[in-house]
Amino acid sequence: MERVSLHWVEGVAVVTLNRPDKMNAVDFTMIDAVIAAAERLAAEPGLRAVVLTGAGRAFCAGLDVANFAALAVGDPEALIAPRSHGDANRFQQFSLCWRALPVPVIAALHGVAFGAGLQLAAGADIRIAAPGTRLAVMEMKWGLIPDMGGMVTLPELLCADVLRRMTYTAEELPAEEALRLGLVTELAEDPLARAMALAQAIAGRSPSAIRAAKRLVTAAYTAPAAEVLAMESREQIDLIGKPDQMAVIAANMARRAPTFG
């Protein structure tokens, strides 16, 4: 079975972790499949938004326990140390590839999002969870630390003391608590339906403005203030009066949905 499935709904790519018999536990094959899906989507000019979800009863239960044995008997340094994707290794790229994608990514969470699954979700722009979903930085349960990009993305979502507590204890949080803490964006009885509705709303906006907005928001969390301010100006200059903006203005004046080239 393919570890990841991909289908399209009017400019929205739905990427599904497809190992339901294992609660979408992450093995090396799935890591490579997720990265390949993101790389394929990055080259799609018609892409407007992405929804990440999991088949079956969970979003993702974390790293497949069988992989721990492979790591323990092999050479961890040979697997982990090489920087295969810019600043990141293969495992980190599993989650960071979604941050690098030029369009918004929405994760629809249900069941559990543990360990690698939580780090994958943290790489998305928005997280929508079903009530009762359980989330955890689970690595300490196995005597490990989170190393799949989570220490880049999670500090943007959580206060330092909360992230420390979750990392040190491997405690599980219900989605309701995760919402209060900022780890989850919103709750929905049907998170996939809500994620699709939100993605389709985004897909109806100016594609160039949406991509500019993602670049700008990403920089806002990582770059010095002077760079962010200059970037605001550059991005705006590149939008004003261009075809996408003119299509929005014409549509607003005519009180209809815009049509983009």
Automatic annotation (TrEMBL):
Record field: transmembrane: none
Pfam families documented for this protein: ECH_1
SUPFAM superfamilies xref list: ClpP/crotonase
GO molecular function: isomerase activity
Entry-linked Gene3D superfamilies: 2-enoyl-CoA Hydratase, Chain A, domain 1, Lyase 2-enoyl-coa Hydratase, Chain A, domain 2
Record keywords, A-Z: Fatty acid metabolism, Isomerase, Lipid metabolism
Lipid metabolism in keyword set: yes
Keyword Repressor set for record: no
InterPro entries in alphabetical order: ClpP/crotonase-like_dom_sf, Ech1-like, Enoyl-CoA_hydra/iso, Enoyl-CoA_hydra_C
GO biological process, one term: fatty acid beta-oxidation
Pathway(s) the chain acts in: Lipid metabolism; fatty acid beta-oxidation
Family classification: Belongs to the enoyl-CoA hydratase/isomerase family.
Annotated protein name in UniProt: Enoyl-CoA hydratase/carnithine racemase
UniProt organism field: Rhodobacter viridis
